[in-house]
Amino acid sequence: MHANNETGVLQPVTELAKLAHAVGAMVHTDAAQALGKVSVRVRDLDVDLLSMAGHKRYAPKGVGALYVKRGTSLVPFALGASHERGLRPGTENVAAIVGLGLACEVASRELTESAVRLQGLRDLLWNRLSEAIPKLAINGHSALRLPNTLNVRFHQVTGNALLEDTPEIAASTGSACHEGYERPSTVLLAMGIDPIEALGSVRLTLGRTTTEPEVERAAEVLIRSWRRLVHGSSR
């Protein structure tokens, strides 16, 4: 991963590529989360393959792209025709491809301005929440992460309970429910976070249309719900 999809933490892809290439291995990075939010240059990353998803860039769903470094040999995805340079037969979805290209063009043009704005909103959300909720903690690196992603641990509540009590916002816990019970995120467990604390985690992300009043409102309702769950009061 170029950026983790739960915490937003940026991974040391260039360093990992150097180690892999030293022993003759090829390197693929999934840049679905990072592309369009931070600068992504395949030459700087020194990867052999890089994939991206269109819907993360506000392009149509169901379209993506794969960068293949010149000289990298690939086995065809399927056989039967010469589409996609013989790697994937089937008629291309031209409209979606054009949409992806335009979305990438817009993202590239607005990258710096958008990153600064989103980081400001993300930090505002963190400040509002941390001022009102004791022991709130960030999951992941405080700085080396996507500008739009805030993954936090709420004390004394589970992330699912908090979000169920806060229907005004759309967010996720990063964990899945199986067979009637909650499981902590494997990503957070791998980071060494206590399983009980991991269950209190929520992933909050901001998008191109997110506004400051919406961030203030999101903080307000999350604080209200946490207080209600912990103390039985929204004050």
Give me a quick take on this structure.
By secondary structure, the chain is α+β, with helices and mostly antiparallel strands. It has helices at 13-22, 42-45, 94-109, 111-132, 159-164, 186-190, 195-198, 212-231; strands at residues 28-30, 49-53, 64-68, 137-138, 149-153, 177-178, 181-182, 201-205.
Provide an overview of this structure.
It is elongated, with a radius of gyration of 20 Å. Helix 4 packs parallel to helix 8. About 2% of the residues have low confidence. It folds into 2 domains: 97 residues, Type I PLP-dependent aspartate aminotransferase-like (Major domain) (Aspartate Aminotransferase, domain 2); 120 residues, Alpha-Beta Complex (Aspartate Aminotransferase, domain 1). The termini are far apart. With 235 residues, it is an alpha+beta fold. The relative contact order is 0.13.
